[in-house]
Design a protein that fits this description.
Keywords: Hydrolase. InterPro entries: Aliph_Amidase/BUP (IPR050345), C-N_Hydrolase (IPR003010), C-N_Hydrolase_sf (IPR036526). This protein is of the alpha/beta class. It has one domain: Nitrilase/N-carbamoyl-D-aminoacid amidohydrolase (4-Layer Sandwich), CATH 3.60.110.10. About 25% of the residues lie in helices and about 25% in strands. It is built from six helices and 14 strands. Strands 5-4-3-2-1-14 form a six-stranded mixed beta sheet. β8 (about 165-170), α5 and β9 (about 195-200) form a beta-alpha-beta unit. α1 (about 20-35) packs parallel to α3 (about 65-75) and α4 runs parallel beside α5. The longest helix has 17 residues, at about 20-35. The two termini are about 35 Å apart.
Length: about 270
Amino acid sequence: MTECTLALAQIESSCLDQRGNLEKMIAYARRAAEAGAAILCFPEGALTGYSTERAREFALSLDSTPCLRIAALARELGLLIAVGLLERAPDGRVFITQMLCRPDGIRRFYRKTHLGGKEAGWISAGDRLPVFETAQGVIGMAVCYDTHYPALVETLSLKGAELVLAPFASPEDSLRRETWMKYLPARAYDNRVYLGCCNLVGGNGIGGHFSGGTVLFDPDGEVVCENFSQEETLLTARISPALLKAYREGEPSVLPYRYFPAGRRTALYQ
């Protein structure tokens, strides 16, 4: 991983105003670029708005004009942009997808693999856990409910991920920070990854409401920066390759500098 600035956007997205969502994201991307960010992550479903039972109604093709506009923006700004959307696949299925747009024009995609209870029946689950090579380092993705599965983030780490982006569409909840702090620091610490989380905030235009929450954890599970206000915001922070190197290549006999996934005994985990 190279030393770089990560930007995490906490925004409100309406299912009824996808053009407005796009314009807002363009403005946030320009702000991130002006702040010197190399990577920008938007929340789950940010481009289309997030819905379960009406997901098919609001879903977009990956080759739709809004998706291609974000890809063009990444090239224009020299910014790596991860954007969430409800995706309508060519076979008609709907996925919760995070699209990664690289500055060189290449696009990659992750489809949420673990669906929440309200999503099952309306949305299809992805079946791959890819990692993505970028100029800044290797990036993995875990979308919202995915983060509750320790093996998912461990798998990404073992595949080389140094930064895991975790976009959320978590409902309005006054205990959002308390909930996240119960388990997300462990995902970062156990797997020696940076973990960047950002949640939708406000309403989706059709009755859904989201609680916000933006936080970056370092490979020791410590909070680098956070914002749990109920306002739209752009959070930026530096990512240190030295910290990753210390934890992943340090002396195995010294607990604080141990890369725990390397010591797995997978034959026992059956």
